[in-house]
């Protein structure tokens, strides 16, 4: 009791400083200690301070029949850690089966964007820690056709004031080989959380007609969302949307083949493209200077031999480059694997019993206490 009294007698700023360094799930339990601490933890100022000091962990979205499980892991990223394939600590499991979601459309500041893929796309914004969610209004005026392409992005503006979901849609005409030869209609809609509660249409011009991959997710960097896309001449470009100005522009892509298995992500503070077209190697390109096309560098050439020999025709998604140069990646939605820069080897990792899993997605995610009630005008639900 005496030690507790000494702690509570500390200045408010010092108490807040100490508590803001605790793991998020510890804070969730400490909310029950006393009303004074509960008031601290539920204040917007504390939530923002805690978010700024939190580190990203690994979030794995696992589909098992009708069940959808969200599994959170922590990990260390120190140069002296020799191998990272077993360096994951289970933190929490969330059951999201009621959302019937099939894919993650983005993770920003503790918020997740989930979507249900089908003739009508349903979108949710949720915070798994606070167990709150928002259901976004649908946009479809008619069922989607097989040739329609829809891709999404979820991000925050460079000012940090506005969180936006972006939906890019286009009709496509394909030839007998399945190659896009014409884009009759292309449009983009933006939903700003906490404002009007409606989607707004914005112009995709002055970009030329681009063919987006429906499996791609907008990569957030520097307040911009980025998608790897092709023009009708099969040349690759990066479509970039400034979330503040809501203006599109294009960035140069590295010299990719006319048809490639490329995925675009933001690793740290750099745009990264992972090319899995070759049967022998996985090639990872890094844009060293943001926006400078000539700065694309072939940073990693990872041999698939012997572990992944012949496994091709699927996207490979880099999740994280560790400080010692090791890389965590996901092969399509089948499994995760790990590349050791030191040993030049690839190892499959099974931290979530993937053998009994229908599909899996993985993404870096910062667990946060920020409530969705910060978005005024939104209908907040709990699960």
TrEMBL record:
Gene3D superfamilies in the record: 1.20.1280.50
Signal peptide range in chain numbering: none
Tree of life domain: Eukaryota
Record-given protein name: F-box/kelch-repeat protein-like
InterPro entries xrefs: F-box-assoc_dom_typ3, F-box-assoc_interact_dom, F-box-like_dom_sf, F-box_dom, Gal_Oxase/kelch_b-propeller, SCF_F-box_component
Domain (F-box): residue spans on this chain: 4-49
Lineage of the species this protein comes from: Eukaryota, Viridiplantae, Streptophyta, Embryophyta, Tracheophyta
């Amino acid at each position: 009791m005496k030690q507790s009294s000494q702690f509570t007698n500390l200045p408010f700023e010092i108490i807040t400083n100490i508590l803001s360094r605790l793991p998020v799930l510890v804070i969730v339990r400490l909310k029950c200690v006393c009303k004074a601490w509960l008031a601290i933890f539920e204040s917007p100022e504390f939530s923002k301070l805690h978010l700024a000091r939190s580190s990203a962990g690994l979030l794995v979205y696992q589909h098992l029949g009708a069940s959808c499980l969200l599994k959170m892991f922590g990990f260390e990223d120190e140069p002296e850690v020799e191998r990272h394939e077993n360096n994951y600590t289970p933190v929490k499991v969330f059951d999201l089966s009621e959302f019937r979601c099939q894919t993650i459309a983005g993770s920003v500041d503790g918020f997740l964007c989930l979507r249900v893929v089908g003739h009508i796309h349903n979108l949710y914004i949720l915070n798994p820690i606070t167990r709150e969610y928002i259901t976004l209004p649908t946009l479809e005026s008619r069922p989607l056709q097989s040739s329609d392409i829809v891709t999404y992005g979820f991000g925050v503006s460079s000012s940090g004031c506005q969180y936006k979901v972006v939906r890019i849609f286009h009709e496509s005409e394909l030839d007998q080989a399945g190659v896009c030869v014409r884009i009759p209609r292309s449009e983009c809609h933006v939903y700003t959380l906490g404002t009007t509660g409606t989607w707004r249409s914005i112009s995709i011009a002055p970009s030329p007609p681009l063919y987006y991959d429906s499996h791609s997710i907008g990569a957030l960097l520097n307040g911009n969302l980025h998608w790897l896309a092709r023009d009708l001449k099969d040349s690759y470009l990066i479509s970039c949307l400034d979330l503040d100005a809501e203006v599109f522009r294009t960035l140069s892509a590295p010299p990719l083949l006319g048809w490639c298995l490329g995925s675009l992500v933001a690793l740290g503070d750099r745009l990264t493209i992972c090319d899995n077209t070759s049967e022998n190697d996985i090639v990872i390109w890094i844009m060293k200077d943001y926006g400078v096309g000539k700065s694309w560098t072939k940073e990693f050439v990872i041999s698939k031999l012997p572990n992944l020999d012949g496994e091709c025709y699927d996207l490979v998604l880099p999740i994280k480059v560790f400080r010692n140069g090791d890389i965590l990646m996901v092969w399509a939605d089948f499994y995760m694997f790990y590349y050791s820069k030191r040993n030049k080897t690839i190892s499959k990792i099974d931290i979530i019993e993937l053998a009994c899993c229908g599909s899996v997605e993985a993404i870096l995610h910062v667990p946060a206490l920020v409530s969705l009630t910060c978005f005024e005008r939104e209908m907040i639900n709990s699960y």
